[in-house]
Amino acid sequence: MIKFKAEGSKEVFRAKEITKKTFEFWKDKPDELSDHVNGGGADEDVEIGIYDEIEDFTVIGWKLNNTTLEIEESKESISFELSEENFKKNKINFKITKKNFEDVCENKKGFIFNAYERLDGTCGPVEIEKVKKFDKTKLKITVTQLVLPDSSEIKAITEISYDKQDISWDLIESNVEATGDLPNLEVNKI
User: Fold this and answer.
1) Helical H runs in 131-189?
2) Nearest-5° angle of CA 102, CA 30, CA 61?
3) Nearest partner of 134 among 61, 184, 74, 186, judged by Cα
4) What is the band of 52 on the pLDDT scale with cuts at 50, 70, 90?
């Protein structure tokens, strides 16, 4: 059996297309916007919803170059830095997919609500019973590259599989022990 555990900085980005009216209503009210998307009410025609329930456009993953994958085998433990350079050096199967805000705007309204937060902590462990020895050639990583409204970008590890077994859920989204700042909540014109 081998066990996987991830430790580092986790990127959480959620976005939702909104109307121009909703954008105009919230754009200069950051405190009221925060209250609203954390469970407070609003008129139906400018309502956004609770931010961590938004799944219209979501990128959740470990920050590339700032996360370590711990692999525990029966006889040893391996610490593996999750970085593009390390993937190339170790011939890890990885790909980068690019996403942008046009992906959010199906109806081409040109306005979005977005929530971005960074958490530091750990996820896992994930156990794979029938494997005795870690083989790096069986590790597959997907990185999502996203340009944020302020033109900065995040690269987050959004999928991890080992020997064709998807272990993303347990290493990215569940069993999280993390701390971080409150999310950055905004409405933007794109």
Assistant:
1) 168
2) 50
3) 74
4) confident
